[in-house]
Design brief:
Blueprint: H1 2-14, E1 28-32, E2 40-45, H2 56-64, E3 67-70, H3 79-85, H4 101-115, H5 127-133, H6 146-156, E4 160-163, H7 167-176, H8 179-192, H9 195-209, H10 213-218, H11 226-230, H12 232-253, E5 256-261, H13 271-277, E6 281-284
Parallel strand pairs: 2-5, 3-4, 3-5
Antiparallel strand pairs: 1-2, 1-6
Length: 286
């Protein structure tokens, strides 16, 4: 349950981005130079997918490194309780404060049909978390996770898992993004019974399979998704900038395998270009 909750939070970020200059089609990148004695590796994940098998290049990179750093330290035993505490809207707000009776009824029908539960029992939960509960319903396959596979491989090597940010950092994102915009996406999902979101997931899976990290960015200009279209600085740019000194610190301490959502890689403020601006050599592993 702890890992599922964290994945539902993280998955949102794997499909958020801004337009960018084309980079090579690769989800695995080598980080070297700028004082590093040995290279580290940057892998763009997709947080939930149909097939999270690790290919030979990823396994080689894991063998060549001595610690795993994800967006969150998913090994933290306190993560679940912290996440549960951050799921609820502030100031006594509930879903009914932001929707009409007709919209509330449509959302209730969506959750009853798709999740087998009424929204009445959950209407004080932040709209994003309500949305994330339905992610598995947007897939035509059992859910797998690259993060869980990376953690499994790391544990087999008796190595440690760390995070680039805390669960509090990620939860703050959904305090900064207005509830109204989060609710707008929930209303859209109810009106078309997840049709847009299922199509978006299918497109994302295809693009990810092609390792086209730049094409993943182009998906985010669709105004049908208010949360991502209007708040990309909060979702990506600011977080990426904050990650760079932490990546540098981890990589200079020991060879590190970094796993972050693939939407964070490309773009002018993507992790790849930011690392290059910081003096590192970042090359695609193809």
């Amino acid at each position: 349950m702890k890992h599922l909750l964290s994945l539902l939070l993280c998955v949102f970020f794997s499909i958020t981005a801004t337009k960018a200059q084309q980079l090579e089609n690769s989800t695995l990148w080598e980080i070297s130079g700028n004082g590093l004695e040995k290279p580290s590796y940057l892998f763009g994940t997709i947080h939930i997918t149909c097939d999270a098998s690790l290919d030979s290049d990823i396994k080689k990179a894991l063998d060549a490194t001595t610690q795993l750093v994800l967006e969150l330290d998913m090994d933290d035993p306190t993560m679940q309780s912290k996440m549960m505490g951050g799921m609820y809207m502030k100031d006594g707000k509930t879903l009914k404060d932001y929707v009409s009776d007709e919209e509330f009824s449509a959302i209730d029908s969506l959750f009853t049909n798709q999740a087998g539960m009424s929204i009445n029992m959950m209407q004080n939960i932040k709209p994003f978390f309500l949305t994330s509960m339905l992610y598995p319903k947007m897939m035509d396959c059992p859910m797998e996770s690259f993060e869980l596979e990376l953690m499994k491989a790391t544990k087999e090597q008796n190595e440690e898992v760390y995070g680039l940010e805390t669960i509090e950092d990620q939860l703050q994102v959904f305090e900064t993004i207005p509830y109204e915009d989060q609710v707008a996406d929930l209303i859209r999902m109810a009106k078309d019974n997840l049709a847009y979101d299922k199509a978006t997931f299918a497109k994302m899976f295809k693009i990810y399979e092609e390792e086209n990290i730049t094409a993943m960015l182009d998906m985010m200009d669709d105004e049908n998704n208010k949360t991502t279209a209007k708040h990309q600085d909060i979702l990506l740019k600011n977080r990426n900038i904050n990650w760079i000194p932490r990546i540098e610190e981890y990589a200079k301490a020991q060879p590190t395998f970094f796993g972050v959502g693939a939407g964070h890689l490309a773009g002018e403020y993507g992790v790849i270009k930011l690392l290059r601006k910081a003096g590192f050599t970042v090359l695609a592993v193809q």
